[in-house]
Amino acid sequence: MQTALLPDGQRFAQLLRTHRDRARLTQEELAERARMSVRALRDLERGRTRYPHRTSVHRLAAALELTGEERVAFESTPPRSAGGPGRAAWEPPPASASIALRWVPLLREVEDAVCTGAGGGHPAVVTIAGPGRGTFAVQCAHVVRVRLDLEVIYVDLGREVRDVETLCAQARQAQLERALDGRRCLLVVDGVRAGDDVGPLLRLGFTGVLIAAETTGGTDGGASRVPYGGPDGVTRRVTLT
């Protein structure tokens, strides 16, 4: 049976088995590398775990030494629970299967800017609301997450109903939980509108890139690498054309 025709849970199970076989690892060896129990791994490979925990998926990807598009595909395959307290709030949408060719150089620019600017800290991608910008930011987030081996904290201000204080407290808690597990975070703030203040979120310890609307006078195909004097923590402004 073709992988695309399998149920969601079975697709991930088959993909996991395929990558383990290619890596020539036993279940015991992979479980040890991924810091999980052999039983948990067996349940994943048999499709018994309906909604694999994203931390387990990230650990497996690292243990299998997956990189680039293979890693993005692996981490995007497991089905996601429609419920799940606290999980959907921070999980970004899946990466798009395609991206406009004119944005490819800009994607690389954002990736390099975030990776360089973040240093050993926590990077951020902030997106002004508008056509195409959210999709582009999410694509950047997935690429940067793979390159730097990061956890993602995704916030869509366009749909956010929590007050700033509550949102920041919960984002800080999510950041600390991941730090205790030895992982750095990538903050993605999507759908920022006029009047929105993302400073409180960025002041949790993030440094980022702003993806803004098209403006006149842009260079290099619309990429404008200029200092941005807006929210604290935003060090670069990148413009989509």
Give a quick set of tags describing it.
single chain, 241 residues, alpha/beta, 434 Repressor (Amino-terminal Domain), Rossmann fold, 2 domains, five-stranded parallel sheet, 42% helix, 14% strand, disordered N terminus, Cro/C1-type_HTH, Lambda_DNA-bd_dom_sf, DNA binding, Transcriptional regulator with XRE-family HTH domain
Approximate shape: globular
Compute the number of structural domains.
2
What CATH first level of the largest domain would be assigned?
Alpha Beta
**Terminal CA distance:** 43 Å
How many beta-strand elements? 5
What integer is the average pLDDT?
A: 72
* SSE order, one letter for each helix or strand: HHHHHHEHEHEHEE
What's the Cα radius of gyration? 19 Å
Strand content: 5-15%
Per CATH, the architecture of the largest domain is: 3-Layer(aba) Sandwich
| Major β-sheet annotation | 5 strands, parallel
CATH third-tier fold name of the largest domain: Rossmann fold
Number of helices: 9
Helix content: 40-55%
Strand order across the biggest sheet? 2-3-1-4-5
Q: What structural class should be given to the helix and strand makeup?
A: alpha/beta
In the predicted model, the low-confidence regions spanning at least 5 consecutive residues are 1-6, 82-88, 214-232
Pfam families: HTH_31 (PF13560)
Organism: Nonomuraea soli
Protein name: Transcriptional regulator with XRE-family HTH domain
GO molecular function: DNA binding
Q: How is this structure best summarized?
A:
The protein has helices at 8-23, 27-33, 38-45, 54-63, 68-76, 104-118, 133-148, 164-180, 199-202; strands at 122-128, 151-156, 185-192, 206-212, 234-239. It is α/β, with parallel strands linked by helices and 241 residues long.
